[in-house]
Amino acid sequence: MSVGKLLSRIVGPSRYQKQEMRLSHQFKTSLLSLYDYSYGITSDPLTQFACFFSALIHDCDHFGVSNQRLIEEQHALVDMFGERSVAEQHSIDMAWQHLMTDKFDNFRNEVMPDMDTAKRFRQLVVNGVMATDIMDKGLKEARNKRWAITFADTVGDTLLEDETEVRNRKATIVIDHIIQASDVSHTMQHWHVYRKWNERLFLEMVKAFEEGRSAKHPVEFWYKGEIGFFDFYIIPLAKKLKECKVFGVSSAEYLDYAQKNRDEWVKRGEEAVTKMMSDLEFRKKITVEQDLSNPNRTPRRASRKQSLGNLVSPNELNEVPPELPESA
Ligand SMILES: [Zn+2]
Hints:
It is built from 16 helices and no strands. The chain has helices at about 5-10, 15-25, 25-30, 35, 45-55, 65-70, 75-80, 85-100, 105-110, 115-130, 135-150, 155-160, 165-185, 190-210, 220-245, 250-295.
C-alpha cells in the first residue's frame, strides 16, 4: 500500500455523507464536489506529487538508529540540524540537493516552473516528511490539535476561520495521515506483508545493538513493543483514516487488517521473534563459513560516508501549512 494507492483511494462522498454534509454549515458556503471533499488534494497535481516525493525520500540516508540516539551520540547531523527531527531534516536535505542537480533540470522545470511553485512544493515536502517524525513532541501536539479542531465535530471553531484556512488545514491533516499510513503500511496489509517488513526493522535494530548503538537487544522488547505499537499508534491511525472519511470503504479495510495483525501477533509474535533470531543466526553461520572457505572474498561495504550539505532552515518546521490553489 503505497502513497499512490492511498491517493487513488481518496473517494468522493457517498450519498449518505452528502446528505450529512448538506445538513452541515459547510454546504452553504461551498459547492460539494470531490474537490471540496478531498480538500483540493485530488485536483492539485503538485500536492499529489509532493506526497509521492515525500514518501519516497522520507528515510533517505537513514542511519538505522533513532533521532534520540543521534542526539546521545552528538552525531555530526545534530550540529547541523539541531536536536529536532534530525534524520528527517537530513533526508530532505539530501534529496533536495539531489533534485537540484543538473540532471533534473528538465524535470524541475516541469514540476516547479516558477519560484512560487518551487516554494510551495518545498513546503509541502517539508511538511510531508516531518509527518513521519512521530516521536517529536511538538510536532505531535500540533498535529493532535489540528485534528481535534478539524474532525472532532467542533463546528464552532471552524466558523471563525475563513474557508481557505479551514480547507488548507484539512488538506494538511489528510496529507499527514496519508504519509504516516504509507510509512507503516505493512501493518495494515496481509500478515505476510506485515511480517516481512517487521523483520527488516527488527534486523536493523539488532544491527544497531551489535554496533553498540542501542542499549537493549530488540529480542528483549520486540513482542510487547509491537502490541503497544498497534494499540497506541497503528490502530488509532487506522481509525483516523476512517474518521476523516476521505478514503471511503478502504479505510475499513486498513483498520481490519491492523486489528487482525495485532491479534495474530499476540498469538504468534513470540514464536515469530524466536524464528527471526534463529534465521539470523543461520545466515551469520553461513557467512562465516563462506568467509573461511574463501579468505579472498571482498569484505562487505565499509561504513557509509557522512555527507554534509545545506541546512533545512529550522523555522521551516513550524511554518503554517502550505496553501492549496484556489480551485482546479
Ligand atoms: Zn519510514
